[in-house]
């Protein structure tokens, strides 16, 4: 018998993957968590029926969340990752030697536990001495932080369940307060095909708080529509004006110094969302 998983990305559209085996099916305190092995994408983490990451394409998302803000900031030392319990963003953050400490705040400890077990190439740096892992509410952590971080990365699920409040203007205001005077933050902001209103609203909210606000994209095949957006808010530094000397060599599969700026070149229908 063949077993297939379908993520219903809208009421009328979904993507399907053939499953080799199921490792975990568990209702955690916060969400339904599944860890499966797929024929096409390797091991896959699914939360509340939505694909979070896979072994085959995870590098795109994690590299683009981490390297765009970290190469934009001239001296990122204190970094916060909200969500991201699989550890992929942390892995990429640690490729930057200027980073003295990377703090991960993940609300669901089970995500961390099972990622270490079934996604070791993604979660492998969570034990690094430069990393502090906190199983806590990222929204509250931000609210209690002030002038603390150089870069904040919001690696959240789609805006449902416990992640919904991570897409509110008040959260972005809290991020601004938690950042130092020249701080930068980035958040994943879903896709322009199925959630254009979300992108427009987030961009509007962020641009009312941060003097420099930019939208960029990446291709992630297991995410809804394959075209994914990220919104960056910066107090001083423009990702489009990074000096070439800032780009040091790191090992990547997707991000390049050329792509750093090219990712901000938007298709017209996407650019129209943020006019």
UniProtKB/TrEMBL annotation:
Residues 2-235 form the PABS domain. PROSITE patterns: PABS_1, PABS_2. Belongs to the spermidine/spermine synthase family. Spermidine binds at residues 62, 86, 155-158. Homodimer or homotetramer. Pathway: Amine and polyamine biosynthesis; spermidine biosynthesis; spermidine from putrescine: step 1/1. GO terms for molecular function: spermidine synthase activity. Its EC number is 2.5.1.16. The keyword tRNA-binding does not apply. Keywords: Polyamine biosynthesis, Spermidine biosynthesis, Transferase. It catalyses: S-adenosyl 3-(methylsulfanyl)propylamine + putrescine = S-methyl-5'-thioadenosine + spermidine + H(+). This is Polyamine aminopropyltransferase. Catalyzes the irreversible transfer of a propylamine group from the amino donor S-adenosylmethioninamine (decarboxy-AdoMet) to putrescine (1,4-diaminobutane) to yield spermidine. S-methyl-5'-thioadenosine binds at residues 31, 106, 137-138, 162. InterPro entries: PABS, PABS_CS, SAM-dependent_MTases_sf, Spermi_synthase, Spermidine_synt_N, Spermidine_synt_N_sf. The active site is at residue 155. It comes from the Bacteria.
């Amino acid at each position: 018998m063949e077993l297939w998983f379908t993520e219903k990305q809208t009421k009328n559209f979904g993507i399907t993957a053939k499953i080799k085996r199921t490792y975990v099916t568990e209702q955690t305190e916060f969400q339904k968590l599944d860890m499966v092995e797929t024929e096409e994408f390797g091991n896959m983490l699914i939360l509340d029926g939505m694909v979070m990451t896979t072994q085959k394409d995870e590098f795109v998302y994690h590299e683009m969340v981490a390297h765009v803000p970290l190469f934009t900031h001239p001296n990122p030392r204190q970094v916060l990752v909200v969500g991201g319990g699989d550890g992929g963003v942390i892995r990429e953050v640690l490729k930057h030697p200027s980073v003295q400490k990377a703090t991960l705040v993940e609300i669901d400890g089970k995500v961390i536990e099972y990622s270490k077990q079934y996604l070791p190439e993604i979660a492998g740096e969570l034990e690094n001495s430069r990393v502090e892992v906190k199983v806590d509410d990222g929204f509250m952590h931000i609210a209690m932080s002030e002038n603390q971080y150089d870069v904040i990365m919001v690696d959240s699920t789609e805006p449902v369940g416990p992640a919904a409040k991570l897409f509110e203007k008040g959260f972005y205001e809290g991020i601004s307060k938690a950042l130092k005077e020249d701080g930068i933050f980035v958040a994943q902001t879903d896709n322009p095909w199925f959630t254009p209103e979300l992108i427009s609203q987030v961009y509007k909210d962020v641009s009312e708080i941060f003097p420099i606000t930019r939208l960029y994209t990446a291709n992630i095949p297991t995410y809804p529509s394959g075209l994914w957006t990220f919104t960056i808010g910066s107090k001083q530094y423009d990702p489009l004006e990074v000096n070439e000397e800032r780009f040091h060599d790191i090992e990547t599969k997707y991000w390049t110094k050329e792509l750093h700026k090219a990712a901000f070149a938007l298709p017209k229908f996407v650019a129209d969302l943020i006019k």
